[in-house]
Amino acid sequence: MPQKGSVRFHTQVIHAAQRPQDWQGSTLPPIFQTASHVHQTAEGLSQTFAGQTTDHIYMRLTNPTNRILEEKLSILEGGQATVIMSSGMAAVSNACMALLRAGDEFVAGNSLFMSTYLLFTGVFQRYGLTARLVEPTDEEAIEKAINDKTRFIYMETIGNPKMDVPDLARTSEIAHRYGLPLVVDNTLATPYLCRPLDLGADIVLHSTTKYLSGHGAAMGGAVIDGGNFSWPEERFPDFKPFLDRKGPLAFADKVWREHHINFGTTQAPLHSYLTMIGLDTLAVRMERHIENALEVARYLMERPEVAWVNYPGLEGHSSRPTAERQFGGKGFGGILTFGLENQKTCHRFIDSLKLIYHLANLGDCKTLIIHPYSTQYVSFDETKKESLSVTPDMLRLSVGIEAKEDIMEDLGQALDGLSK
Ligand SMILES: Cc1ncc(COP(=O)(O)O)c(C=O)c1O
């Protein structure tokens, strides 16, 4: 592999952290399916427990297959250290918990993935942790919500399902002005479209279950530490032992040592392996997702049965200028929402699709659809659904990489059927 960073993203995503010379020539990483590892000497294991070596001890702590994926993701996101976990929600909850103490607050964009929203507004509240939710694109509101108890700012690169795109560079400037780190869930954009650390963010999170894998065969999450935040003692006194031990990697050490290990959010090495198989094709898949999504969005706009389409790539979309700049002209992602007449029409429409899968996931190479109002958000009260822009007439489409004509033909025949 040429020097890290010296090759283009399409090459890097395939070759980063590849070491066939250490894998008996295998072009794919080995799966180390073992709960624990043998150590040759008592002194050696004692040193490893003391953190003086990076040898593996026990799968809940580290695993050689997981470590390869950690290295890959650090390279792809431009981070200094990554901790792989069992799911995207493990990454979200562990990262936030590592940043918070009882009574602390944080500011988050209100355009949040459903479980993240429930964690922030339900579970965290019971533990005395307050999420101040603001419009992610309203920089004045973000600044106003910061106070002495704030510990970080949290954003999603592309809000799900609101499809809004916050300006990460400007948000990180606000965060840093107040001595706070910016945490970004980059699941929907992936490092193909956006590298939040390059824009000033400090921590990046992923559900690797989605685009990074792309095949829907594996679950996983990742916490990536940019290694540039200084964790000033006045606001982060609890970081002192981690700074003493790991310097710039204090956060990665804290999230791993305090939370990942003790909450037991272990990633099964098979899932890391499957994720890496998918990762090889991320760049070409994203190109195709993006191209197909724009075409499908434009097609839906032309259909009289469709009341509205929400996709940041459409002319006139409020997030289009930010997305265009932030994503370097590479496009606007693979997810869109659109409206039909009402919930009944949405259900009829889903039931008549022939190619598109009806299921709760996104970022798969197959095109997926869901009616969020009556599924993921069914237990939310009306006010909450409204604040999250989850309306009865809304469908969410995760546009896959099939031939776009086939996706549009399937949508078209289901739309035709509505008037029968
Ligand atoms: C933006 C975002 N973050 C986090 C998650 C949670 O990921 P997982 O399902 O892997 O726990 C999801 C899942 O859909 C998501 O869309």
What's the arrangement of secondary structure elements?
Layout (H helix, E strand, L loop, with lengths): L8 H7 L26 H8 L14 H14 L3 E5 L2 H12 L5 E5 L4 H13 L3 E5 L4 H6 L5 E7 L11 H10 L4 E4 L4 H4 L9 E5 L13 E5 L14 H7 L3 H14 L5 H11 L2 H21 L5 E3 L9 H7 L8 E5 L3 H9 L5 E2 L9 E3 L11 H6 L6 E5 L5 H15 L2
Parallel strand pairs: 2-3, 2-4, 4-5, 5-6, 10-11
Antiparallel strand pairs: 1-7, 6-7, 8-9, 9-12, 11-12
> What does the overall shape look like?
globular
In this entry the ligands are: pyridoxal-5'-phosphate
Average pLDDT reading? 96
What is the CATH topology descriptor of the largest domain?
Aspartate Aminotransferase, domain 2
The major beta sheet can be summarized as: 7 strands, mixed
Quick one: CATH class of the largest domain?
Alpha Beta
What share of residues are in beta strands?
5-15%
Which stretches are low in confidence, meaning pLDDT under 50 for 5 or more residues running?
Answer: none
Distance between the termini: 58 Å
Give the SSE string: HHHEHEHEHEHEHEEHHHHEHEHEEHEH
Strand order of the largest sheet: 1-7-6-5-4-2-3
Note the total helix count: 16
What CATH architecture label of the largest domain applies? 3-Layer(aba) Sandwich
Range of helix content: 25-40%
Q: How many structural domains does the protein architecture include? A: 2
- What structural class results from the helix and strand content? alpha/beta
Tell me the number of strands: 12
At the fourth level of CATH, the homologous superfamily of the largest domain is: Type I PLP-dependent aspartate aminotransferase-like (Major domain)
Radius of gyration: 22 Å
